[in-house]
Write a structure and sequence with these properties.
The protein is α+β, with helices and mostly antiparallel strands and 300 residues long. 16% of the residues lie in helices and 32% in strands. A hairpin with a 2-residue loop joins β10 and β11 (181-186). The longest helix has 22 residues, at 2-23.
């Protein structure tokens, strides 16, 4: 009788342990998945405060410490977000500013500002790390040989998906803009509308009211097809209309916190956490997947 009981106990323990091992680590060699792993076709650049692509192994951001102007690169922590603990340890009580927002697309199109006085301030929020321009002279610039022509389809088609916090100001939030010739957005203009102008201004369909999202984190998608201008926010279409005024012919480099060109008094106070761009009007399933993933990841 004693031997039978002992055998049953051993079998029960063996089963329990094997079940626990089976519950964890089903695929120990499986590569992690990130939102852009299968979405690099026709990409122009990819910036974020989190890792977006599993093969990317560089830093996310280079910051300048205001107390001594030292520069430092920072990667991400276990939560895939830029390492805020490391940033806070390094900066002490000093303010920090963005020198480089690194491109994760594999094209090396980093967004850079080498002039200390024009670097947007970085805010090391543990939940939603971000940067914000001062609305006077701050911006980051993406250097490409033919500027906006390279990151769109010759100044026409393109897609931008960005997580931003809109403010109220007569401002150019990203892109290029010289007078009516532009590929740019206002988020928000002083009337609390978001304007999207992917070509010669001003097309009949170009704005939606965004008063309810002032100082609120939101995901915005802007698409120029070969015929239409489309804007979305929060995963919902805000407008979709025929664009009849012609393509952008400028060659200035794409900028963030400003639309590069002659509107030097229109720099923005829009905050940014993520900005992904394609040089075509990508398929709806692709941008909707990016939207859904970003909304879930950032809790917006």
């Amino acid at each position: 009788m004693f031997k039978i009981k002992l055998t049953c106990i051993v079998l029960f323990i063996s089963y329990t342990i094997s079940a626990q091992i089976g519950h964890y680590n089903h695929f120990p060699t499986m590569k992690p998945f990130h939102v852009l792993d299968d979405k690099l076709t026709n990409i122009s650049f990819a910036f974020s405060m989190r890792v977006l692509e599993s093969d990317y192994n560089g830093p996310l951001i280079r910051l300048r410490r205001a107390s001594d102007n030292t520069l430092q690169d920072f990667s991400w922590g276990d939560n895939d977000i830029v390492d805020i603990d490391a940033i806070n340890t390094w900066r002490g009580g000093s303010n920090v500013f963005v020198h480089t927002w690194y491109d994760q697309s594999g094209l090396g199109r980093n967004a850079v500002q080498t002039n200390n006085a024009q670097q947007p301030r970085f805010f090391p929020d543990t939940t939603r790390p971000h940067f914000q321009g001062d609305g006077t002279d701050d911006f980051l610039i993406v250097d490409t040989p033919n500027g906006i022509q390279d990151v769109t389809n010759a100044g026409d088609e393109g897609t931008v998906v960005t997580i931003a916090r809109a403010t109220t100001k007569s401002q150019h939030s990203f892109g290029v803009l010289t007078n009516r010739d532009r590929w740019s957005t206002h988020m928000n203009w002083s009337d609390n509308r978001v304007y999207f102008d992917p070509g010669i201004c001003c097309n009949g369909t170009r704005w939606f009211s965004n008063a309810g999202n002032v100082n609120v984190w939101e995901i915005y998608t802007f698409i120029k097809t070969n015929t239409n201008a489309v804007a979305r926010s929060g995963g919902t279409q805000r407008f979709n209309g025929v664009h009849t005024t012609g393509r952008c012919t400028r060659t200035e480099d794409f900028t963030i916190c400003w639309a590069n060109g002659n509107g030097t008094t229109r720099r923005s106070t829009t905050s940014f956490m993520e900005l992904i761009m394609y040089r075509t009007d990508i398929n709806a399933t692709v941008y909707q997947d990016i939207e859904d993933n970003s909304i879930t990841f950032w809790g917006i």
